[in-house]
Write a structure and sequence with these properties.
The chain is 41% helix and 6% strand. By secondary structure, it is mostly helical.
C-alpha cells in the first residue's frame, strides 16, 4: 500500500530501508530519493519504520514477531495510485 502519495513510497519500501538502518521516516524517505513533501504521511511512516526496526531487534534475539510486525519486507498490500504534492 502507498504510505506517501506525494512521493509514491510504499510500505514495503519503508520496511526495507528501515531494515537497512533508517531510524526515522525522514531518513527512510531520503534513502528512497526525496524527503517528505506535505508531511501528512510522516506519523504513519514513522510507525512503519519503528515496527520494522522492532521486528529486526526481536529477530536478533530469536523472538517471534509481534502482531503487525513482518519478517518479509514485501508483505504489505500493493495498490493505490501515486499523486502529486499540492503543498
Amino acid at each position: 500500500m502507498y504510505v506517501c502519495i506525494c512521493n509514491g513510497y510504499r510500505e514495503s519500501e519503508l520496511r526495507t530501508v528501515a531494515r537497512e538502518g533508517a531510524a526515522t521516516a525522514e531518513d527512510a524517505y531520503l534513502s528512497l530519493g526525496d524527503g517528505p513533501c506535505c508531511g501528512r504521511c510522516i506519523p504513519f511512516a514513522q510507525e512503519v519504520v519503528d515496527s520494522e526496526r522492532q521486528a529486526v531487534l526481536r529477530e536478533k534475539h530469536g523472538l517471534e514477531p509481534r502482531k503487525g510486525e513482518s519478517r518479509d519486507p514485501g508483505s504489505d498490500l500493493a495498490g493505490g495510485l501515486p499523486g502529486l504534492c499540492t503543498a
